[in-house]
Design brief:
Length: 266
């Protein structure tokens, strides 16, 4: 599956900004692990609507600098409303890292974006190049092995309506395990790598909020490979199966998250 960046809309960007509290919370944990300090220069790759970049700007203070880059123009529209001296945003993604000079950043963070990057090895080598000696890389992403049944429900709904799964039909196409992620980062030349895998749980009241988050967080790639005339049937089946998971507290969303910190030594 090749990720499509032209499926996003202003409505999806606004939905993501409204529904991304959990991803923002993990981003703040990542910032804590990175030990961001006043005066540092930080690059936020895949900054989305800029919530974490704004938090980073508060951490580096007036003497620091934060740049958020994202390949989705509608998300950048929202992010740029958060801009101020020391906090800026630009169009770009992991393929655009060659624009930055060698050893020009104190930290590079990727929150809830690494699983969308297809050329991971190339991106990691570029990140190492642009980090200063002692500079740190931070990645927060989903674990390949998730404890919730959502992916199975989605796949079964697609298969039941279409008689099979379209090739490449996945919610997040390039997820890794903790071991795979560590190996990739070590291979990119980072001698110091820490990976933490943690299990989290929360509850969602409305099924439609889950479906809206799937669509918004995937910037329109959710069910994109299902023909338009069959999406209503697939969505209806997913909605019914998700409702079966409802408890007195709502629909439980259990998920495993990876937090990685690596450091360039030379």
């Amino acid at each position: 599956m090749t990720t499509q960046f032209d499926l996003d809309t202003r409505e999806l960007a606004e939905s993501y900004d409204r529904l991304s509290d959990t991803q923002f919370r993990f981003g703040t944990l990542l910032v804590d692990r990175l030990g961001i300090r006043p005066g540092q220069r930080v690059l936020d790759v895949g900054c989305g609507t800029g919530r974490l970049a704004e938090h980073l700007a508060q951490r580096v203070g007036p003497s620091g600098e934060v740049l958020g880059i994202d390949p989705l123009p509608f998300r950048l529209e929202i992010a740029r409303k958060r801009a101020r001296p020391g906090l800026s945003f630009a169009l770009g993604g992991s393929d655009d890292l060659p624009r930055f000079a060698d050893r020009s950043w104190d930290a590079v963070c990727l929150n809830s974006v690494f699983h969308w990057i297809e050329r991971k090895e190339e991106a990691l080598r570029e990140i190492r190049r642009i980090l200063r000696p002692g500079g740190r890389l931070g990645i927060a992403t989903g674990d390949k092995e998730q404890p919730n049944p959502f992916s199975a429900i989605i796949r079964e709904a697609i298969a039941s309506v279409m008689g099979g799964i379209p090739e490449g039909a996945r919610i997040s196409p390039f997820l890794l395990s903790a071991e795979e992620l560590r190996a990739l980062v070590l291979a990119a030349g980072f001698p110091f790598v820490e990976v933490e895998s943690t299990l989290h749980s929360d509850f969602v009241d409305r099924v439609d909020d889950l479906l809206e988050f799937f669509q918004a967080s995937s910037f329109g790639n959710f069910l994109a490979l299902v023909p338009a005339e069959r999406r209503a049937a697939v969505t209806g089946r997913i909605r019914r199966e998700l409702e079966k998971l409802r408890t007195a507290r709502g629909i439980e969303r259990r998920f495993r998250r990876l937090l990685l910190v690596a450091e360039r030594k030379d």
